[in-house]
Write a structure and sequence with these properties.
heterodimer; A: three-stranded mixed sheet; 14 strands; 41% helix; disordered N terminus; B: mainly alpha; 5 helices
Chain lengths: 595, 158
């Protein structure tokens, strides 16, 4: 049922509405359309040892994945997903220590009553906003504006959401901090005298547990190996190169950085830019132009959307993380050709992300790469959140899912998340990087990466790979994996709806209702836990969430405290949409029976 | 029991955040329930006959949906850089595809409201006249042939 739903287009998705209403409540987790790919949280917990520092060695491989490694030559025909698997390239291989990781397509399951009340709440907020706007317009007729004759900066409807919905709960967003974003940090308190229309900072700070920063490996605060070297390079070079790469901004640090990044990611060459957002939006117009086709995932980041729009190519979208729909769109577009002239496309690029930051989901990379090879399209992988955070040695989603890096044509990533620095990189073949260095405006006209920041990246890569002489890198990687799996499984046991796959350090907790967003955020802050809540329009209207980012710097006590706080706030606010799982003893019995 | 019913939110490929909420489960039911509760509200506030209440609901529904579906153009946020600034909400849903299930549902609702309103008022004037005008305007505005049509340039782009 899950497969057929993904294959329908939007107009017929509502035919399933009446049948969907009568889905009964899941027992513990929502029904899994792809059980053969699932590695449940219980499996992970069972496998991690007591002291928690060993990598996950699995003695039990689910029968379907065992047959998958044999099925490279042997084609199985059940279901379109299997068909894609059977045409996978020979580079598709397992790691011995990891079974095929859980890339399950988990649909967001909403209690029906919550959906109705969420629509109603948004409707009410909308009505109130419109009424206030209406009266404001009447009152403004009387007042005299000094800008007679000028065009208005905003058209009437454009800033409605910001003025009437966002400003009401403004204190939950944009909170200033006054310390490095480590596992614990200082949040500056703000007060408002006019009901949240403006906020003033006070001198008070509160020490809070940081569950919002992208500090996956704990490099955000001072590190014993990286920080002295960064300070030394600051003294040696200067805070800024004050020049573009081609003029005078290429230092020895930059060339060393590019070599290290290329070898870390597993590609022949790499080029580094000063800003992560710019990496996407300045590269896509260079790689493809008018007459080309970009097919991007529907939940791609704004930088990719911006770059795709700026390129002038035709942009099409496929349903999030659904390789079958991608194939359908590809076939349609290749058959149609360019709009109006129907000539064949000059180039086709498929853009996907490694970990989607709003869902915490891993990309279904092996299947997507297989589809792209079949239709001879290029693959562009944006690993902003997954580089350094997933994979046995931190090399990202390709390592985790067992995809050969030679299969992915352009690999992009940022240094802001796991490496504690700033900037982005593109890694690819030598010819590609050479071409980019001649043409990309971010290389030719933008200031190069700041030298201390470059040194921070180099040092953090050395720590991750263990080249600093200690095992801290391996500890961090194991730490983040255990922390994420532990946290996710505990939250799911409490009855929260948590998205995202196992091993992913990003876990959104679904809130849905617009009034629960500020309630959750403020109550957590009162209890000294800082969470980031995300609402419309960054997420779809119904699906507001609180997004938790786990770090390797979080200790077990921190996580347990966070769990207690989130559990009590969840009870208070009413976001435990699933029934809480029974306690451990009954769970053990169930496991014995199944095996 | 109703608290235990779950629905699955199938991810859409609709990029327009202004209209993708209409593809998630529960919208149709919410719409119908809001109309029903408005009828109850009108009945309790104005203390009129059920027929008059349905007529009031029908006319208010006409004004509100005409204003928001067919008059207001663009989106309530600036993220999309104004690519939908010339399109009303009705022209934006389902990416401009005509005769989808959502559009058919939205066309049927004013018709059903008209039938209920005229039946409960026993087809008397002047309510019948106003109800008929309301339903005619709404249904004509929703025809596929009226996509991006601006009669006499009313509500056109500057």
């Amino acid at each position: 049922m899950g497969l057929s739903k993904e294959n329908c287009n939007r107009s017929s998705s509502t035919t399933h509405k009446t049948t969907e209403i009568f889905d009964l409540a899941p027992k513990s987790n929502p029904p899994d359309p792809f059980p053969i790919y699932t590695r449940r949280a219980e499996d992970n917990e069972r496998d991690t040892s007591e002291n928690g520092s060993n990598p996950i060695i699995s003695l039990f491989t689910p029968p379907a994945t065992r047959s998958l490694s044999l099925s490279l030559k042997f084609f199985s025909q059940s279901g379109s997903e299997q068909r894609l698997q059977s045409s996978a390239p020979p580079a598709f291989h397992h790691h011995r220590n990891q079974t095929l990781t859980a890339v399950r397509s988990k649909m967001i399951t909403i209690p029906y009553l919550t959906a109705l009340t969420t629509y109603f709440s948004y409707g009410l907020l909308f009505v109130f906003g419109q009424l206030r706007d209406f009266f404001r317009r009447i009152i403004d007729l009387w007042s005299h504006s000094s800008l007679q004759g000028y065009a208005p900066i905003c058209l009437g409807l454009e800033d409605f959401y910001v003025r009437r919905l966002y400003l009401r709960i403004q204190d939950c967003f944009n909170r200033p901090i006054s310390s490095p974003p480590d596992a614990w940090f200082d949040v500056v308190e703000r007060v408002s005298k006019d009901n949240n229309k403006t906020l003033q900072r006070t001198k008070n700070v509160s020490r809070c547990l940081n569950l919002g920063s992208y500090n996956y490996l704990g490099f955000a605060a001072a590190d014993e190996y990286c920080t002295p070297r960064v300070i030394e390079s600051l003294k040696r070079f200067s805070p800024s190169t004050c020049s573009t790469r081609v003029d005078g901004g290429t230092t020895t640090l930059h060339t060393e950085l590019e070599e290290r990044v290329a070898s870390f990611v597993g590609k022949p060459a790499a080029v580094v830019f000063g800003m992560g957002y710019v990496t996407n939006s300045a590269i896509l117009p260079v790689l493809i132009g008018k007459g080309g086709l970009i097919i991007s995932d529907s939940l791609n980041h704004n930088s990719i959307v911006n770059g795709a729009r700026g390129s002038g190519a035709t942009v099409r979208v496929f349903q999030h993380n659904t390789p079958s729909h991608l194939e359908k769109v590809l076939r349609e577009q290749i058959a149609d050709g360019q709009p109006r002239t129907h000539r064949p496309w000059k180039k086709i690029i498929i853009v996907v992300e490694g970990i989607y930051s709003m869902e915490g989901e891993l990309c279904k990379l092996p299947e997507i790469v297989a589809v792209c090879k079949k239709y001879k399209a290029y693959v562009y992988l944006d690993e902003a959140h997954s580089i350094g955070a997933v994979g046995k040695t931190g090399r990202g989603v390709c390592e985790l899912l067992g995809v050969d890096t030679a299969e992915v044509d352009v690999m992009m990533g940022t240094f802001t998340k796991s490496f504690g620095s700033c900037g982005g990189y593109i890694a690819g073949s030598k010819e590609l990087i050479q071409y980019l260095k001649y043409t990309c405006p971010a290389h030719l006209y933008a200031t190069s990466v700041s030298p201390p920041a470059a040194q921070q990246i180099i040092s953090s890569i050395k720590v991750i790979l263990g080249e600093d002489g200690s095992s801290r890198g391996a500890q961090k990687l194991a730490g983040i994996r255990e922390n994420s799996n532990f946290f996710r499984s505990e939250l799911q046991k409490m009855g929260f709806e948590v998205l995202g796959d196992n091993d992913s350090p990003v876990m959104p907790i679904m809130l849905y209702n617009p009034s629960k967003i500020p309630a959750f955020s403020r109550e957590c802050l009162k209890r000294n836990v800082a969470v980031v809540t995300v609402a419309f329009p960054a997420t779809p209207l119904l699906l507001a969430r609180a997004r938790i980012c786990i770090s390797a710097a979080h200790t077990r006590e921190d996580l347990i405290k966070a769990l207690e706080v989130i559990s009590s706030v969840g009870d208070l606010v009413g976001v435990k949409y699933f029934p809480a799982e029974p306690n451990k003893q009954q769970l053990e019995e169930g496991r014995v029976k199944m095996e | 029991m109703i608290g235990r019913l779950y629905v699955q939110a199938v991810p859409t490929a609709d990029l327009n955040r202004n209209t993708d909420w209409f593809t998630y489960p529960g919208v149709w039911t919410t719409y119908i329930l809001i109309l029903f509760f408005c009828w109850l509200l009108v009945l309790s506030v104005f203390n009129c006959t059920p027929g008059m209440a349905w007529t009031v609901v029908n006319l208010c529904h006409f004004v509100v949906t005409y204003h928001f579906f067919h008059w207001k153009k663009g989106t309530p946020f600036a993220d999309d850089q104004g690519i939908y600034n010339g399109l009303t909400w009705w022209e934006q849903i389902d990416d401009g595809k005509q005769l989808t299930r959502n559009r058919k549902f939205l066309t049927v609702v004013p018709l059903v409201l008209y039938l209920i309103a005229s039946h409960t008022t026993d087809y008397q004037h002047p309510m019948l006249f106003f109800n008929t005008v309301a339903v005619l305007v709404l249904v004509v505005a929703k025809f596929p042939n009226m996509h991006k049509v601006r009669i006499f340039g009313i509500n056109g782009d500057q």
